[in-house]
Amino acid sequence: MRHDIVPGALFPDYELSDHTGKHRKLSELQGQDPMVLVLSRGGYCPKDRRQAEGLVELHRELEVGYCRLVTISTDNILETNEYRTGVGAHWPFLSDTRRIVQKDLDIAEYTDSLHNPMIPHVIVLEPGLLIYKLYNGYWFFGRPTVEELRQDLRIVLKKCRRDWDITSPELKVAWQQGRKDLFYPYGKTYAQTIGEQD
Length: 198
Prior knowledge:
Layout lengths: L14 E4 L4 E3 H5 L4 E5 L6 H19 L3 E6 L3 H11 L5 E3 L4 H6 L15 E6 L3 E7 L9 H15 L8 H8 L13 H8 L1
Parallel strand pairs: 3-4, 4-5
Antiparallel strand pairs: 1-2, 1-5, 3-6, 6-7
Helix pairs in contact: 2-3
């Protein structure tokens, strides 16, 4: 992995084709929510398919918890759709046949010259594509469990949701005064909040 891709750094805002062929930027897919980004070998890999199957149930929680999930692989659009449909996924899958991400991040899996995939990684991103945590998944058990991702997202959400502890008297007063800017999704984005603190 490129030396500057570390917790606290900004992840590159790649623009790739999604499973429908539409060009999508990561920042657009993330919006103002935390995001789990899966860099995948592709649908041919049984480890990646098993990981995606495990993420299917978590995705239902992410949707109600205002978090996002995106998978990027080097599969073409047809393979991307087969991979996505085959595991029963409903989140965006991005196709990187030109290996832009693989080359830019220096994560070519040199031990597999047949498929020329990326070394699998999972990256937990705070709003604004800010890296919270990285997992190297070359070995399957290097990948985060669903429970580890839940714990990571709990920490990230506590940081980026000013209304995390809605029991605080200050928040209750703010709501009664009509100051909804402190409450998600009424208020400013996390990136704006961080900018004000700098």
